[in-house]
Each structure stands twice: as structure tokens, then as C-alpha cells.
Amino acid sequence: xxxxxxxxxxxxxxxxxxxxxxxxxxxxxxxxxxxxxxxxxxxxxxxxxxxxxxxxxxxxxxxxxxxxxxxxxxxxxxxxxxxxxxxxxxxxxxxxxxxxxxxxxxxxxxxxxxxxxxxxxxxxxxxxxxxxxxxxxxxxxxxxxxxxxxxxxxxxxxxxxxxxxxxxxxxxxxxxxxxxxxxxx
Length: 185
Prior knowledge:
By secondary structure, the chain is of the alpha/beta class. The chain has 2 domains: 3-126, Rossmann fold (3-Layer(aba) Sandwich); 142-180, Arc Repressor Mutant, subunit A (Orthogonal Bundle). It contains 9 helices and 7 strands.
């Protein structure tokens, strides 16, 4: 589906709520979605996202899973309470099956791993019924997924290399070498 056709399929309600604490990403996505015909409201925290979802429930929402002040699923829940027919895509840099299942159970329409571009997001928002959105043109490589998982566990262990290595069943020096490198593409 092209962006033009996608914008025409939206009907009258083209309201979109974007919730992400990465300011640069949020601004880029906001501009890209406005170009695709959405009326965008953005929020940089769970509190601001919940307030916007409660005050002006949008037809569509794109919510980051992990925000500085909490978890994006709280915004999904608030939006579902106010507008059950809304279409919600959850974004995260830490893709995991457990969080994907939780997001869908809370009412998310789809779940995408970052970096997702505006086209991937529009396709996920507009997919109807049994239609699945097409696979992303530039999915994360296996090396990138592995690196993201290691980074997530490292952060959850409060940046403790020894504890992270133990939980990943990995030698500490191997982990140190991985952490010292730049992220793969």
C-alpha cells in the first residue's frame, strides 16, 4: 500500500498520538506522519501520553515500550479504556517475545522493533483484518538483535559486567569486548 493510498484509507479521523522519550526520533516521526496525512499529537513521557490519550483519544497511536518514567503499555491501556477501536503500534529497541505478547494482550495492533521507519509504521497502523503488513525492507540483522539483547540485559543488571555475563552464560571478557564495540547495523 502506498503512502497516498494509505492516507486515503484513513477516513475522516486521522488523529495520531506519538509517545516516545527520544526527542529527535519523535520530531522526525512527527514530521513524516504529518506528511502522510495524520494530525499528530506527541508526548515524551508516560504521564503526558496518558493525559493525551484520556483527554483526546486518537484513532491511531504509536507508543514506545520503554520510557524514562515508566512503561508505554500504561498509555496503551489508557487509550483502550477511552477508545477501544483505536489502532496502536508499540515500538521498542528491545524486542522480545514476552513483551510482544504483553503488548498485544493490552490491545496493541502490532509490535515493531526500532529502528522502524514511517512506512513500516503506517503499514502496521493500516493493516486490516487478516492482512499482515509487509515485512520491513531493512529488518535488524541477527547481529543487531543479539547486540540489543545484550545491551538490555546489561542495563537491567545496572551496567554490572560480571552479573550480565553470569546471566547471559558468557565469559566476562567476551562480554567486555562486545560492549566495547559499536552496535552492528
